[in-house]
Design goal:
Layout (H helix, E strand, L loop, with lengths): L14 H19 L12 H7 L11 E5 L2 H14 L8 H6 L13 E5 L8 H9 L1
Parallel strand pairs: 1-2
Length: about 130
C-alpha cells in the first residue's frame, strides 16, 4: 500500500496505516470464509487485535503465539531494522521510538503460548507447531 502511494510519509496513526489495519482483518476473514487455515502475524498492540478479531470468532479457532522480549531488546531491534531495511519507510519508527509507552501485547481468552525470542526461540519451532495443531 505504501509503494502505491507516491510521496507517502509515515506518521503515528496516519490515514494509510489506519486503513491497513482494517484491510488486514478483511483479508483474514476472506481466507477463513474460504476455509483456509492460516497464521495471521502482526506486531499489533492489544487494542488493535481486540477490535479486529471478534468478528472472526465464528470462522476460526484462535490460538495465540506471542513473541516476547524485554522492551529494551524490542527497541534495539526496531532501531536496527529502521536503519537497515528500506521497507521500514511504511512505519513511523522514529515516532514510535520517541514514545516511552510500554507495548501492550495481545491478551485474549484463548490458548496462548509465549515464545521468548531474546536469543532464538524458546520453546522451539517443534513445540510451537505442536501447540498450534493441538
Amino acid at each position: 500500500m505504501v509503494f502505491s502511494n507516491p510521496g507517502f510519509v509515515a506518521s503515528y496513526s496516519d490515514a494509510l496505516t489506519m486503513r491497513t489495519y482494517g484491510l488486514f482483518f478483511e483479508a483474514i476473514s476472506l481466507l477463513l470464509r474460504a476455509e483456509v487455515t492460516l497464521v495471521a502475524e502482526a506486531a499489533f498492540q492489544h487494542r488493535l487485535w481486540v477490535k479486529g478479531l471478534p468478528p472472526l470468532d465464528d470462522l476460526a479457532t484462535l490460538k495465540i503465539v506471542r513473541c516476547v522480549v524485554s522492551d529494551e531488546v524490542a527497541r534495539e531491534r526496531q532501531a536496527t531494522r529502521m536503519l537497515s531495511h528500506s521497507t521500514r519507510a511504511a512505519h513511523a519508527d522514529n515516532q514510535h521510538l520517541a514514545l516511552s509507552e510500554t507495548f501492550d501485547p495481545i491478551h485474549l481468552d484463548a490458548p496462548t503460548l509465549d515464545v521468548d525470542t531474546s536469543e532464538g526461540w524458546r520453546p522451539g519451532l517443534p513445540a510451537i507447531v505442536q501447540f498450534c495443531r493441538s
